[in-house]
Amino acid sequence: MTPLMDVRDLTKTYGARIGCADVSFRLYPGEVLGIVGESGSGKSTLLNCLAGHLPPDQGEVIFDTRAEGPRDVLAMSEPERRMLGRTDWAFVHQNPRDGLRMRVSAGGNVGERLMAVGARHYGEIREQALDWLDRVEIAGERIDDRPAAFSGGMQQRLQIARNLVTGPRLIFMDEPTGGLDVSVQARLLDLLRSLVRQMGLSAIVVTHDLAVVRLLADRLIVMKDGNVIETGLTDQVLDDPQAPYTQLLVSSVLQV
Ligand SMILES: Nc1ncnc2c1ncn2[C@@H]1O[C@H](COP(=O)(O)OP(=O)(O)OP(=O)(O)O)[C@@H](O)[C@H]1O
């Protein structure tokens, strides 16, 4: 099977400081990969390099595009990468404010993504926006409200609807449940898990919360000081960690 994403020797430094070093992995269609590690281990750097938000110093990110098959994302032009970001990819930020347009209505937030990929029929766009609000458990009567009038959990669900409405193949998530109350987190995780399964989505999820990857991820990458120190199936890594650092992480001795 062709990997959806094939990452080879990805390295990013900030001056003398290592962001991430020599990271390689393959992500297959329909798979959810979790990236875990304590604060400063390089998770966000890696995610941002993968998603084209940050230029790495070296390495390759080969993505199996819907339109043209496998392409090196890093060798793409900026407009090509931006197009990928609107079609095959989605990015869910930790803070919904970074992923939503706060002055635009909930329906507009979802609908403008459809318009960005060519939808023009107002009635159909509104219908799809309503359908997506329903799928993320936001009442249709809130369609004309701005996200500022929503709770944190609702904003995050709206961000997810805005990201998924165009049917991406890969969704990047940066601490998707961070900053939410525990009960709200659980509901959001349930929703994310069922959407990912229903849509057969692939995902790369960065989190310091092992409960998030336990529920969402098929496979894990454990990072420390910018390096990958352990990989494997989620249950295997969490139930029988091999690296001493992972053992500490799992036993919650480390402050993550
Ligand atoms: N813009 C930057 N300039 C300089 N150093 C940076 C920058 N961004 C990250 N770093 C450094 O790169 C390393 C990895 O940071 P990164 O933010 O990727 O870790 P993280 O695992 O995502 O941490 P957190 O969970 O706290 O977000 C750290 O040593 C950090 O200080």
UniProtKB/TrEMBL annotation:
GO terms for molecular function: ATP binding; ATP hydrolysis activity; lyase activity. CDD domains: ABC_NikE_OppD_transporters. Keywords: ATP-binding, Lyase, Nucleotide-binding. The keyword ATP-binding applies. InterPro entries: AAA+_ATPase, ABC_transporter-like_ATP-bd, ABC_transporter-like_CS, P-loop_NTPase, PhnK. GO terms for biological process: organic phosphonate catabolic process. It holds the Pfam family ABC_tran. Residues 5-250 form the ABC transporter domain. The keyword Iron-sulfur does not apply. NCBIfam families: CP_lyasePhnK. This is Phosphonate C-P lyase system protein PhnK. It comes from Gymnodinialimonas phycosphaerae. The gene is phnK.
